[in-house]
Amino acid sequence: MNVVGISFSYADNSLQTRGLKLLNDKQLFTDMYEMLDFNMPVCNSNKSDGQVPDSVNKFCEVLEKADVLVFAISEATSHYSAGFKNAMDWLVVKSRFNAKLGTDYAITDKPIFVITFTPTVNPENGGRHFDMTTQLLGKLGANVIECHLINNSWKTVIPGGFNAVKSAYSAVKGFLGTYTPNSTNTRCKDDYSSLTWLKSYNEWDMAWRYEMKPIHRVNGMPWPRINDREKKIVEVPLKEDYKLRSMDYLDTQEARPIFDKQADIIINNNIKNIVDVGCRIGIVNDILQERGYTDYNYMGYDTSPQPINYAKEKWEDYSNIEYRCASMYDNNSVDFDVDCVIWSGVLLYNPTDHMKLFEDVTFKQYNAKHAIIQEPCQDQDADKWLPNMKLNTIEQDLHLYKDKYNYNDWIVNANVFSGRRRIAHIWL
Ligand SMILES: C[S@@+](CC[C@H](N)C(=O)[O-])C[C@H]1O[C@@H](n2cnc3c(N)ncnc32)[C@H](O)[C@@H]1O
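Above are the sequence and the S-adenosylmethionine SMILES. Below is the predicted complex in structure-token form.
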């Protein structure tokens, strides 16, 4: 039987550790540890992914291998000590904050003896934490057999002072004589509730890290956060470095028709190798994946670092999807033969020579056979526009593409700011 003693003290000359040593005078333990053997940091994780430092894994392995545990826990201001609670908190992190309490911790189903060594002589003192400790261990599925308090320890827990711990020793010994370990009781499945937790956690965490805000709405519709009180005509600024939230109105379900049509073109033409210029977060990937169209290569690039970093993180597990922080004026080579280049709301950056840029990148650089252009329509519904704003678009020039290439286009009208868009499919 594997009987393991653990002192939850971090002190060099700990009373709890020395008390356990005394208890082990007659080789009660297979192994004995103190917190300094693991040196677990203060619990600093709030993520239910089960990731813990190596020191915690080592601690958990020790617990898991044990058949019976003897915990020496000091009392601090009538409570269990911080070292003990810290260790228990790590067990919770390791079990992915498992909401099904008491089923998936390294001490679940283990019999535990709790001992507190204290220099105080009043028999009340030192053991005031026993109820809460028993309750905590019980919550984690452990079975506290007995709690033992050894008062007056500076006088009695001394070298050769086995008598001080004799009753605790006898209690453990007596139990060992009756106990048959059973290690497979109530463990729950790995993915029990943690995946839902993790998804919600990631959404919350990314919202903070990428400085997101609740979607801004005007007339009930997703809208950019622009000053609508300006009297003179203002031009929507065209920048190379946007925050993620600057165009978050395009990430809403209401904006989906703009990208649904682009996904239609990809799927209907069996396009497999895509470059997305000025992609922001590349919403088209969400749609393709949702529709089960997963067998393709995608490389999207944009000069705005924040949306690109967000997209990189979001799609990091997908080897076919890559995002880069890069400019359309540079050479951005890929290791697949490009079928299609997407220009969604991007050619408007080049009102004077958009066609040259389009041809240089689509045909000369990538040798692609297809392209998708998305541009805001000059005519917007009154409730989706501001009369004092000047629209950036090259929609009026799309006939030049129609005259030169195979061309088809569609108008979609999404319920967002400037939601009427022209989407063109151009192919050779
Ligand atoms: C109107 S947004 C369109 C974003 C996305 N394609 C869409 O349809 O929602 C234009 C994007 O072009 C990016 N951009 C601006 N200048 C660029 C450049 N030189 N190279 C690549 N991207 C650029 C901006 O950062 C911005 O994300």
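The radius of gyration is 33 Å.
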